Hints:
Blueprint: H1 7-20, E1 45-50, H2 61-75, E2 78-83, H3 91-94, E3 99-103, H4 113-124, E4 128-132, H5 143-149, E5 153-166, E6 180-190, E7 199-204, E8 215-223, E9 226-231, H6 237-241, H7 243-256
Parallel strand pairs: 1-2, 1-3, 3-4, 4-9
Antiparallel strand pairs: 5-6, 5-7, 7-8, 8-9
This protein binds zinc ion.
Amino acid sequence: xxxxxxxxxxxxxxxxxxxxxxxxxxxxxxxxxxxxxxxxxxxxxxxxxxxxxxxxxxxxxxxxxxxxxxxxxxxxxxxxxxxxxxxxxxxxxxxxxxxxxxxxxxxxxxxxxxxxxxxxxxxxxxxxxxxxxxxxxxxxxxxxxxxxxxxxxxxxxxxxxxxxxxxxxxxxxxxxxxxxxxxxxxxxxxxxxxxxxxxxxxxxxxxxxxxxxxxxxxxxxxxxxxxxxxxxxxxxxxxxxxxxxxxxxxxxxxxxxxxxxxxx
Length: 264
Ligand SMILES: [Zn+2]
């Protein structure tokens, strides 16, 4: 559970504590540290899962939260804090985490300018950012968020079983999946094809839903010193309970936290 502070972090924390003189009441005592360039660590990653919604609210949110908790416990790779409180998306708040997850978020979340700057600063300094499903249907009027996550949602023309092709079988978030898999999902399309801007991990086999065209479904990218991953799957609670999807979630967390490397 603990995350050892480097000497530099500890010094920064003590300076900050001296300045602030307090910690937040009602929580376990957590030393706020100023965001520094992060060094990938083999210790447990600290993951903040945000499920706030300002638009559509998915029934699968409880299943998603349970999946994150279960994967963290089973793998011992990460600890999980879940929240709907956007106040945690601040420089001080995010300094306590290695990975930020927008899990089934939606709509124009009331994230003020300070929070937006903190989110971008967190990633630039080496934090991991994961988005699932409607994370691309979130903050759609904020262009820099679109750049961060790779694309904005357009529509979901297909809610049915479809074949998903694994484009990069070597990424921690896809290894072990084989060349393709089939599942029932709400398959997204995006305002424009993110392929030129991202490293595509999964795409929809358009012929499997009676369509044609290129439809990336999961991807990763590097932003500053940080790692970004997005997966459009996750509409149904059944998806979150699917071991093939859980494998992707765990691999994505470990990659975003810098525990395992793979170029994107
Ligand atoms: Zn959905």
